[in-house]
Design a protein that fits this description.
Order of helices and strands: EEHEEHHEEHEEHHHHEHHH
Strand content: 15-25%
Structural class: alpha/beta
Largest sheet: 6 strands, mixed
Strand order of the largest sheet: 1-2-3-5-7-9
CATH superfamily: 2-enoyl-CoA Hydratase, Chain A, domain 1
Distance between the termini: 46 Å
Shape: globular
Number of domains: 1
Number of strands: 9
CATH architecture: Alpha-Beta Complex
CATH class: Alpha Beta
Radius of gyration: 17 Å
């Protein structure tokens, strides 16, 4: 379902296979386990960076609704809530992860897949294929509370929030740059990964204290913290 490789101080987490990378409890648990491994290894590796990407046509097409309905329609709602609650923990993991994070988007990122992308600090996206898209208005579903809080913090304007949530806007890479959601866009997946590696190498040279980085990130997303059960705190490790 996903793999982890390292290139020096750079961790590359890849959602594997030519699938939609639907987020169900097993996949969420595996991603969280790899993030825990990254967290542990990065403590002794200053300047560590995470790049998350997906193989094939999708970064992630959101929650696994087929899994939610596989045990009968009567259990659909409870299984959907299970995924919502599991994924909240994954978002909290990324928001509190003690190193910079980059999402390398070379395919569609929809619904919870879009949320997975914007839970990272930086987004690099392929121009020719893939959109960022919140499908809930088209599917007839409301958003979990932490989805809305995350979008309020990350989408930069009430107009962007309206277009994404109330119009179901499908955002291509260059539109994402104009909206301030995407940082860089390239023609191929290979160019996207090369760009991510360059960003990671540049960030890694700073060798920031991971705990300080995490707390500053959390403080910058203050409106999101209560719903995720996170708090920011003061950390001082400066060599004065």
């Amino acid at each position: 379902m996903c793999t982890l490789e390292t290139q020096g101080n750079i961790f590359i987490l890849t959602l594997t296979g030519d699938t939609e990378h639907r987020l169900n409890p097993p996949l969420i648990a595996q991603i969280r386990s790899l993030l825990c491994e990254i967290k542990s290894k990065s403590e002794s590796q200053p300047g560590s960076i995470l790049i998350t990407t997906g193989e094939g046509k999708f970064f992630s097409n959101g929650f696994d609704l087929a899994w939610a309905s596989s045990n009968g329609s009567s259990n659909f709602r409870s299984r959907l809530h299970e995924m919502v609650n599991d994924f909240k923990l994954l978002v909290a993991d990324l928001v509190s992860l003690a190193l910079p994070t980059i999402a390398c988007i070379t395919g569609h990122a929809a619904a919870a897949g879009f949320m997975l992308a914007i839970s990272h600090d930086y987004i690099v996206m392929k121009k020719s294929r893939g959109v960022l898209y919140m499908s809930e208005i088209d599917l007839g579903m409301t958003f979990p509370d932490y989805f809305m809080d995350l979008m309020r913090e990350k989408l930069n304007s009430s107009k962007n929030l309206r277009n994404v949530c109330l119009q179901g806007m499908k955002i291509k890479a260059e539109d994402g740059i104009k909206m301030g959601i995407v940082d860089e866009a390239y023609d191929s997946g290979e160019e996207c990964m090369e760009a991510c590696l360059k960003i990671a190498e540049k960030l890694g040279l700073r060798k920031w204290n991971g705990e300080v980085y995490s707390e500053i990130r959390k403080n910058s997303l203050k409106g999101l913290l209560p719903v995720l059960g996170l708090v920011d705190r003061e950390v001082i490790v400066a060599k004065l």
